[in-house]
Amino acid sequence: MKIRNTLYALAKQSKALGAYKLARHAYEKLQGLRIPARFQETIELGSLTLRSKPFHDSEELIPMCYRCSTNNPLLNNQGNVCINCRQPFIFSASSYESTPAAAMQQIPTTFAVTSPTSSFLTIIHEAD
């Protein structure tokens, strides 16, 4: 699969969904590539029609960090992390939406154990 096909699909779908900033970026990258003549007009037309659209992405498409409540851009040079707190985004396998991630850690517990061979009660403290 060629990069130009991927960028064109990204630009077309971004434009259809209302992610105009992302679509502009994809069309700008396409302008820098060698495009066959049969696709050149389609790409130029898509880029021109995009100029009449807003300069920001649709509010409902922008991922929000559940840790610091920052809205993040769809295209991030730092990877799939929050631009403010660097919390990685974890996406649900069923809905492909970012899910709030909670850190789990083991809490030390104390419990009593009696031995079947003796009548002594043993206190066990579980540590890290």
Give helix and strand order, one letter per element, not per position: HHHEEEE
| C-alpha termini separation | 49 Å
Low-confidence stretches at least 5 residues in length (pLDDT < 50)? none
Q: Into which percentage range does the β-strand content fall?
A: 5-15%
Shape from CA axes? elongated
Q: How many strand elements?
A: 4
| Average of pLDDT | 81
- Kindly provide the radius of gyration, computed on alpha-carbon positions and rounded to a whole number of angstroms: 26 Å
Structural class call reads alpha+beta
How many individual helices?
3
Helix content: 25-40%
**Major sheet characteristics:** 2 strands, antiparallel
Spatial strand arrangement across the major sheet: 1-2
